[in-house]
Amino acid sequence: NTYNLYFRRIINFIMKISFTATALLSILGATTAFTTTGYGKASTTALHASGVERNPNFAKLAGGYLFPEIGRRRTAYLEANPEMADRLVSLGIGDTTQPIPDHILSGLINGATQLGTKEGYSGYGDGEGMADLRTKIASELYNNLIATDEVFVSDG
């Protein structure tokens, strides 16, 4: 309904602002430490400016973003092995090499057309993905070996 749509948009907006502010504070080095007591012991924990405990493994990550590094290595490989250009399948950032098949394209067009009607408009779907799609995945792809609530559909 309209209320849920507006509520979700407000929450998404707040989350974007919160993430942006948190990222900015992190860049500026706005971290703190405080002492907590748990299980009878005092322990010091590094906290992010938002008050959320940091995962210590983030400090172990090497600098740089993964996908540009994959791109550099792919380019270097192809420069050294130009005969492989037609055979190399890049599994990096998800760049496509073929057009969308007709049956998928017609489904996308049909879905977009339905969203343009009052009867077909659905707004935001379930957080776990469309219930009917999850049911179909459980039954058709997994022969009902898993329950519908074990299926998660996302765009990422």
Tell me the Rg in angstroms: 23 Å
Q: Stretches where pLDDT falls below 50 for ≥5 residues?
A: 30-46
Q: Cα distance, first to last residue?
A: 25 Å
> Which structural class fits the helix and strand makeup?
mainly alpha
Shape: extended
Instruction: Specify the biggest β-sheet.
Output: 2 strands, antiparallel
Order of helices and strands: HEEHHH
Integer average pLDDT? 75
Number of helices: 4
Q: Beta fraction of the residues?
A: 5-15%
Number of strands: 2
Main-sheet strand order equals: 1-2
Helix content: 40-55%
Protein name: Aminotransferase class I/classII domain-containing protein
Organism: Proboscia inermis
Keywords: Aminotransferase, Pyridoxal phosphate, Transferase
GO molecular function: transaminase activity
Structural description of this entry:
The chain is mostly helical and 156 residues long. It has a domain at 1-61. It contains four helices and two strands. The protein has helices spanning 2-27, 66-80, 102-115, 131-141; strands at 32-38, 41-47. The chain has a two-stranded antiparallel sheet. The longest helix is centred in the N-terminal third of the chain and has 26 residues, at 2-27. The protein is extended. The two termini are 25 Å apart.
